[in-house]
């Protein structure tokens, strides 16, 4: 057994919803004792960095019920069963922004909260963006599009209007790319 591995002794599914499943696992710890772990299973998600020809980052403003407020975020969304990250990214880009792109460059993949969730986010950069005529949208999503400069993005972070890890990660990536162009 791996030095830090926790062997699952028993699993109870507490909730099986549209987006997540919640398990409570009884585990054997490396020292032989037992403990409980609450685990959120998630199908995975994508996030897209989309920078316009004017060097502006495209953000969506969206109300986030768990936080009881709106945030400015890069376009993102949940992967559907059997969907590749690239397919999800193209679909979400159109649904949330009304744009598509000729190419998606993979940037990174990362776990959002590995202490309790297996959600893996795949981050892409959209290249050669194009406006879509009659884009497909989600009935239950209410979004406002914003195009912001790098300086405006930093201000939104300071104001805690950008307050999620994937968007801050994207802005750090943008900062590095801007520095490499100089």
TrEMBL record:
GO (cellular component) term, any one: cytosol
Cofactor: Mg(2+)
Residues in Nudix hydrolase domain copies: 40-170
Protein name from the UniProt record: NUDIX hydrolase
UniProt similarity note: Belongs to the Nudix hydrolase family.
Subunit details: Homodimer.
CDD domains assigned: NUDIX_ADPRase_Nudt5_UGPPase_Nudt14
Gene Ontology molecular function: metal ion binding; pyrophosphatase activity
Intervals of motif Nudix box: 77-99
GO biological process terms on file: nucleoside phosphate metabolic process; ribose phosphate metabolic process
Residues that bind Mg(2+): 76, 92, 96, 141
UniProtKB keywords: Hydrolase, Magnesium, Metal-binding
């Amino acid at each position: 057994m791996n030095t830090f591995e926790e062997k699952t002794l028993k699993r109870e599914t507490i909730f099986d919803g549209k987006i997540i499943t919640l398990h409570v696992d009884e585990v054997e710890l490396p020292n032989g004792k037992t403990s409980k772990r609450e685990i959120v299973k998630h199908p995975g998600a994508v996030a897209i960095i989309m920078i316009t020809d004017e060097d502006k980052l495209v953000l969506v403003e969206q109300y986030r019920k768990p936080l009881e407020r709106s945030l400015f975020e890069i376009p993102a969304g949940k992967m559907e069963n059997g969907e590749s990250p690239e397919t999800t990214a193209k679909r979400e880009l159109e649904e949330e922004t009304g744009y598509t792109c000729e190419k998606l460059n993979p940037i990174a993949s990362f776990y959002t909260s590995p202490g309790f969730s297996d959600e893996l986010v795949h981050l892409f950069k959209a290249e050669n963006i194009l406006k879509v005529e009659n884009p497909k949208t989600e009935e239950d999503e209410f979004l406002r599009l914003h195009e912001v400069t790098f300086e405006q993005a930093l201000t939104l972070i300071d104001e805690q209007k950008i307050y999620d890890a994937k968007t801050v990660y994207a802005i750090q990536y943008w900062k590095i790319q801007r520095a490499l162009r100089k």
